[in-house]
Amino acid sequence: MNRNGRTIISLIGVLALAFAADVCAQKPSGSEVRIGVVVPVTGQAADVGKREAIGAQAAADVINARGGVGGVPIKLYFADEGTNPQEAIGAVRKVAGDDKVLAIVGPHYSGTAEATFPLGNRLKIVQVAVASSKPGVAKANRPYAFRNTLTEDKIGEAVVKAAKQRYGLKRVAIISDTKDAVARSLGMGVLPAALQVNGIEIITGKDPVTFQNGDAQFTAQVTRLKSLNPDGIALGALGPDALNIILEARKQGMTQPFFGTAPLMEGNLPERGGKAVNGTFAGSVWDSTLDDPASSAFKAAYAARAKTMYPGAFTQNPDYYATNAYDAVFMMVEAMLKTGVQNRADSLEADRDRIKDYFSKLRNFKGVASTGFNDDGDGVKNVIVTEARDGRWRPVASR
Amino acid sequence: MLAQQIVNGITLGSTYALIAIGYTLVLGVLNKLNIAHGELFMVGAFTGIAVARMGAPLAVSLLAAFVLAGLMAVVIERTCFYPLRNASFLSPMLSTIAFGILLQNLATQFFGSDPSRFPDTGASFQLSLGTLSVSAIHIAILATAFGLMIGIDLLVRRTRWGIALRATSDDPETAAQQGMHPSRVTMTTFFVSGALAGVAGMLTTLVYSQVTPHIGIRQGLIGMVAMVIGGLGNLRGAMIGGLAIGLVETMNDAYFSAGYRDLVIFSIFFAFLIFKPEGLFPAHRSS
């Protein structure tokens, strides 16, 4: 081979080596891998937000115990969403801008997500909302918005079907929030549609009985519900309001069953409501009585972390929101390893995009209660219908 | 159901009426506004909760709410009004705004910003009159509120304190010459006004599912609206105004939409301000 030939081969060899080295360098560099967690630890959703935070930290604990992300430990950067959009925007700005995280677990509510998702698109950072389930929110905010939740329409249909089976519902009245984004969409959209699909008459027609999220009393509304004499009442409400409505209903002598979807499951309704709320139906995508290996590992990690992080009665037991946060962290780590995130100061934007691209195609993730995202950016999961009984939510045996 | 909603409305309205009466008493005596009045409602609510949590019976909690809110009102008078009695018209009112915020923050420190509930009284008997259903709590509220309203009415018209009150508000100097201490009359009036608000707060916590440290803001505002609608300075007008607003709010929530609740109430308020600012029962400044 002549001198030119050898030069060319050497050049190709060097290039090949460099290329191989680059591909092999899938391990991130740096002293820590940063993920942001924006969930509410104050305000109305404080209890469930704390559980989400514990779930995320539990995931980080498990990952770090295995050696971190390619040998680099994970550190979570927390910022309080405060259960309101203004604070959430500030929190996202802080973790994305000041803390320079690679992706964000959070926010919590649809109401806050509707505010922070557009910001995430401008900042070009992935957010994985952990409780937002109002239909359409991620779809309207491609490509950086994701939600590791099942949209309410799927949960609604399953819950209504189960409630009809149990209670033989023929005529149902709806009471709906007019203030909170997801509760309103439940009362005005999701539940009416689910009732219609199941052939149940909606006594309140297009005008449900209404209230405002956080109202101190529901006397007038419950009196009206009572006068309609329904077989059951559909709740377009968040857990704390639902609790007050049901308690007032029992005070006024109503015995009918109530049902709603995922938002009913925060606010510790069975613990706080006692006998009055027994038989209330809700739906979710995970239940703490499940004992498959993934669930067991999650519960153990959660229990360990809950001893030192936000210890208390209402954070002791994980709920499915905590699994959404837990799985989200694992999804981010999987994305980082499989796409070769470099975790250098100058690769921040590229790394964030790598995660975004991975999530857009993630369809068969093996999580506790998550399998990935669909084309709209929403989570794909199974539905578990639950009922409040003796102080806890318990899965309803399907017939 | 309409009859039931009317009962609901009057129950709610009677708590608003107690607040409005309190505002009116102070307005009549000093011709000034205590903007922290709503916080006295809140003080009564939380006092009731705190005392009940210690295991006391309902009547004791009510008494505690009455006394503590009354005393707090006197504190407001001594700190916000008395030192500034010769200052401009605005200064005492601004002081009360600050005092109100202080009370809200104190309550948040002690009780947290999450809603607080009255411990379960266990009393749950229902009186049924045809389709009407009135619970023990409702009866307690109506009886207490109406009892207080009638009591105040009698006090102001028939007793020496009432005469002193009206005399002092009409003409402080002459009243003083006649041996009525304006300062003492003022403090007593404040005590009564605060005590009424405190009782309203405690009763409200019984019927409402929950209270927060910031509940005084809206309650105070509604009380002011009730006072204006009823007729500034007119005690009976304040009662009627409070009951009317309670009915409006209940009918709105039952038959219309909760989202429009405050819009409806304040539209009525503005309509009165524009077309009938003297209110339903125009007053002479005493009762």
Which structural traits does this protein have?
heterodimer; A: alpha/beta; Rossmann fold; 2 domains; five-stranded parallel sheet; 12 helices; elongated; B: 287 residues; mainly alpha; two-stranded antiparallel sheet; 2 strands
Spell out the blueprint of helices and strands:
The complex is a heterodimer of chains A (about 400) and B (about 290).
Chain A: H1 3-24, E1 33-39, H2 46-65, E2 74-80, H3 85-98, E3 104-105, H4 110-123, E4 127-129, E5 145-147, H5 152-167, E6 171-177, H6 181-197, E7 201-202, E8 209-211, H7 219-228, E9 232-236, H8 239-251, E10 258-259, H9 269-273, E11 281-284, H10 293-306, H11 320-339, H12 348-361, E12 384-389, E13 392-395
Helix pairs in contact in A: 2-10, 2-11, 3-4, 5-6, 11-12
Chain B: H1 2-30, H2 37-53, H3 58-81, H4 90-111, E1 126-129, E2 132-135, H5 136-158, H6 160-170, H7 172-177, H8 182-207, H9 215-230, H10 235-255, H11 261-275
Antiparallel strand pairs in B: 1-2
Helix pairs in contact in B: 1-5, 1-8, 1-9, 1-10, 2-3, 2-4, 2-8, 2-9, 3-4, 3-8, 5-6, 5-8, 6-8, 9-10, 9-11, 10-11
Structure characterization notes:
- The complex is a heterodimer of chains A (399) and B (287).
- Chain A is an alpha/beta fold.
- Chain A has helices spanning 3-24, 46-65, 85-98, 110-123, 152-167, 181-197, 219-228, 239-251, 269-273, 293-306, 320-339, 348-361, and strands spanning 33-39, 74-80, 104-105, 127-129, 145-147, 171-177, 201-202, 209-211, 232-236, 258-259, 281-284, 384-389, 392-395.
- Chain A has 2 domains: 33-150 and 291-381, Response regulator (Rossmann fold), CATH 3.40.50.2300; 153-284, Response regulator (Rossmann fold, 3-Layer(aba) Sandwich).
- Chain A contains 12 helices and 13 strands.
- By secondary structure, chain B is mostly helical.
- Chain B has a single domain, classed as ABC transporter involved in vitamin B12 uptake, BtuC, CATH 1.10.3470.
- Chain B is built from 11 helices and 2 strands, in the order ααααββααααααα.
- In chain B, a hairpin with a 2-residue loop joins strand 1 and strand 2 (132-135).
- In chain B, helix 6 (160-170) crosses helix 8.
- The radius of gyration of chain B is 19 Å and the shape is globular.
- The two termini of chain B are 36 Å apart.
- The model of chain B has no long low-confidence stretch (mean pLDDT 85).
